[in-house]
Amino acid sequence: MSKKIAIVQSNYIPWKGYFDLIAAADEFILFDDMQYTRRDWRNRNQIKTPDGLQWLTVPVKVKGKYEQTIRETELDGMAWAAQHKKALQHAYGKAPHFAATMALIEPIYAQAWTHLSPMNRAFVEAICDHLGITTTLSNSWDYTLIDGKSERLAALAAQAGATTYISGPAAKDYLDEAPFTERGIAVEWFDYAGYPDYPQLWGDFLPHVSILDLLFNVGQDAPTFMKTGRP
Fold first, then answer.
1. CA distance 35 to 67
2. CA 168 from chain center: how many Å?
3. Contact by Cβ (8 Å): 190, 21
4. Measured between alpha carbons, how far is 136 from 58 in angstroms, rounded to an integer?
5. Do 43 and 12 contact (CB within 8 A), yes or no?
6. Residues 13-68: tens digit of each pLDDT
7. Which of 9, 113, 190, 224 is deepest in the core (most CB within 10 A)?
8. Taking the model in full, what pTM does it have?
């Protein structure tokens, strides 16, 4: 029986391509045993506003020179949640599906989160459910980790019963396919090309923003502007 696995770090309300990668897999492993990296997608993302692109950043506590995993990373309080909601109101208050999308995410903002990983997962799960994506989500700590960048990924995939490992195209620069081949696992490269434009507020179309932009603007039609909803 075939089984496709993808393994990626959690992001803060990521872009539509992240959700298409989830949808392409039978199981999606959130790889938050990886080191936390600053100025990355782990705790921030972009939205489109009347003043251009704006970062929404979740403040986190860091130890030394960021010597901690994503899983270990703590949030620096929850005061930022109100600021993010205010920014979303400013950017998307006039969007056709503002109320419905805010109703989806407000309960997550309302919780008293202490760590980044479970909060990121909560947003991802809620949006997957909203989009009709039924892929199993799991955590890297559900499995045994070994040393070696590509070896670790291959071992994770094998433990999950993978016959195919789906990777984002950026990994072509560093992924060694040999550990996968040794375990009888095919490597498939996901293609983020070919996304259609969708109705978007505030000037020229900008594609690489948080999926919230898509949800606010087109609502339940979002999958038709993703690979998820097209043949």
1. 7
2. 12
3. yes
4. 26
5. yes
6. 999 999 999 999 999 999 999 999 988 999 999 999 999 999 999 999 988 766 89
7. 9
8. 0.96
* pLDDT at residue number 66: 62
SS3 assignment for the chain: CCCEEEEECCCCCCEHHHHHHHHHCCEEEECCCCECCCCCCCCEEEEEECCEEEEEECCEECCCCCCCECCCCEECCCHHHHHHHHHHHHHHCCCCCHHHHHHHHHHHHCCCCCEHHHHHHHHHHHHHHHHCCCCEEEEHHHCCCCCCHHHHHHHHHHHCCCCEEEECHHHHHCCCCHHHHHCCCEEEECCCCCCCCCCCCCCCCCCCCEHHHHHHHHHHHHHHHCCCCCC
Residues 6+ away with beta carbon under 8 Å from 1: 163
pLDDT digit string (tens) for 77-121? 999 999 999 999 999 999 999 999 999 999 999 999 999 999 999
